[in-house]
Amino acid sequence: MKSSKIKSSKFFSWHFFVIGFVLTCAIATRPPRLCAKELSKTDFVLGTLCTIRLVEGGNSATLDEAFARLRTIEDRMSVNKEGTEVSKINEMAGKEAVQVSSDTFYVISKAIEYAKITNGAFDPSVGPLVKLWNIGEGGEKVPPSKDILSAKALVDWRNVVLDASTNKVLLKKQGMRLDLGAIAKGYAADEVEKILTRAKVKAAVIDLGGNVFVYGTKKDKTPWRVGIQNPESERGDYLGIVEGPQMTVVTSGVYERYFIENGKRYHHIMDTKTGFPVDNGLLSVSIIGQSSIDADALSTSLFALGIEKGMELLKQFPYTYAIFIDKYKKIYLSPGAEKVFTLLDKGYSLVR
Ligand code: ADP
Ligand code: MG
User: pLDDT per residue over 155-189, tens digit each?
Assistant: First the structure.
């Protein structure tokens, strides 16, 4: 059965796309200039709805440049499109190494670093499992166990060979598949940040399907406020707020892509040891930090590792905080997170 949330988010994609389109058309008729009013653009890219809002500084050309960059990243790293660099690596699995752009090489290298430090709980070679389960694409059901076993056997980051001198990537075994879905949006947000810095934008919000980067300082100097989604209710229903200066806030949760079979929820973050979706009682993990590629990789990593091992791993990352939410409506904060997070929903309780 397909979840109603996925359906409604598809509806909203188009809805917002239309609004974004109207806004950009209106803006495009004016000559580029520094704008006094806020400009914003929304489009469907990187498999999700992305919005960039210029709160102060920048112009429509800045927005166009940022969206062109997002499109380039998608064209290089998507696994849902033919001809991307990652698709070519996957096609050549077990055969030969593929030379890729430094963009793609960097993101794959970063993903492999996370595979190392999480002992494979985060693994960009998870592709065969992602493809088999096909979660969020419609018509899902729990696959036969023999298929789960054979897909799982292909997942092993140690069989991804990187050659930094040529930017070549080889998957050692036929049938292996890279999937950068857990990290590419974070990289994309960091790349948009660079464009905003070059364009001397003073304040902006980058929202790549819930992967948020609040950039710069607002004119009135008030802190940014980013909502943390209630994992058990509709999109936009926040159970708490993160407040602070420039930061990225990235969440991995069970509520975006899932299906329900026999009353059990199957979501899109895979346990590479079992071949099933991670089943550790967590509903979401949010990471607050400065680098979005790290926050994105960490949100998936900590979700897969669970609270105890996740908290341990986070110690390696200074000025980076985590908010774990579990199915018992308990919220676990990493040390320091209490300074930036305020709980609003009384139905949840903080565990220290
Ligand atoms: P979202 O993309 O919904 O924001 P995540 O960043 O947590 O959420 O990424 C989830 C995606 O990462 C999945 O859709 C899949 O493409 C990929 N993935 C699933 N399980 C793993 C895993 N154990 N390690 C690395 N990537 C994974
Ligand atoms: Mg992630």
Answer: 999 999 999 999 999 999 999 999 999 999 999 99
Which among 78, 131, 300 is the best mutation to test ligand 1's pocket, defined by most ligand atoms within 8 Å of the CB? 300
* Closest ligand (CA of 257): 1
Q: DSSP per residue over 305-333, as a string? A: H-HHHHHHHHTTSTT-EEEEEETTSEEEE
d(CA 132, CA 123): 16
Which of 152, 160, 179, 276 is the best mutation target for the ligand 1 pocket, counting ligand atoms within 8 Å of the beta carbon and taking the most? 179
The tokens describing 157, both together, are 């980051």
User: Which of 176, 213, 268, 279 gets mutated to test ligand 1 (max ligand atoms within 8 A of its CB)?
Assistant: 268
| Ordered domains of the chain (ranges, CATH) | 2-74+183-351 (3.10.520.10), 79-171 (1.10.3980.10)
At 18, list the tokens: 């239309």
CB of 108 closer than 6 angstroms to any ligand 1 atom: no
Q: What is the dihedral of CA 210, 214, 219, 220, to 10 degrees?
A: 70
- Which ligand ends up closest to the CA of 297? 2
Q: State the amino acid at position 31 in one-letter form.
A: P
For residue range 300-311, what is the model confidence (pLDDT) as tens digits? 999 999 999 999
Strand-pair partners of 264: 261
| Residue at 254: amino acid letter | V
Does the pTM surpass 0.85? The reply is: yes
296 Cβ inside 6 Å of ligand 1: yes
Nearest in space to 175 (alpha carbons), one of 197, 189, 155:
155
For 48-64, letters b (16+ CB in 10 Å) and e give ebbbbbbbbbbbbebbe
Pocket of ligand 1 contains residue 204 by CB under 6 Å: no
Distance between CA atoms of residues 158 and 171, nearest Å: 9
What is the Cα–Cα distance from 269 to 56, expressed in whole angstroms?
Answer: 36
Of 84, 66, 67, residue with least CA distance to 75? 84
Beta carbons within 8 Å of 46's beta carbon, 6+ residues apart = 70, 73, 74, 78, 184, 185, 188, 208, 209
